[in-house]
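Extended Data, panel c. Modelled sequence:
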Amino acid sequence: MELNDELDRIFALRDRDNMQPTIEALLPLYAAHPANSRVLYEVGGAYDTAGQEEAALEFYERALDSGLDGDLLRRCYLQYGSTLRNIGEHEMSREIFTRARKAFPESPSLRVFEAITLHGAGNPNEAVASLLELIADVVDSPDLERYKPAISANAAFIRSLGTSVDGGRS
């Protein structure tokens, strides 16, 4: 069986509530293909889902250094940045999302998770403004269409309030 097919098969069978069988299925593939970017990414993702963030970080970093591209690169950036946020590394998470957004400027998922990082880093106004901009840019709804200029203006106003958690000017 081809490597990508085997990886797809393993993930089709995964149980997000019990990732150990998935990790155990991936480790032989990792042993056989220790430099394969997708294998590194998928092992990292399995450890991440299992709540083993420190192990996941190492695999994500190696996957990013090994030449991931396309959607796998976007997904790795998102998961790596999110994991960094989860362990309190907000500045590193922001740096990863900055890199990711440069590589994938149209990705709504990166924008959402970057906003979560902004909030976690103590920038709730920037996070809300970013999400409002995402809504104005991406959500296609006749109900919202006439209000998009107001949504964008509110995003700019909220962003102008700065990073104060109480919503006041800073």
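Residues 59 and 82 are 14 Å apart (CA to CA). This feature is highlighted in the accompanying rendering.
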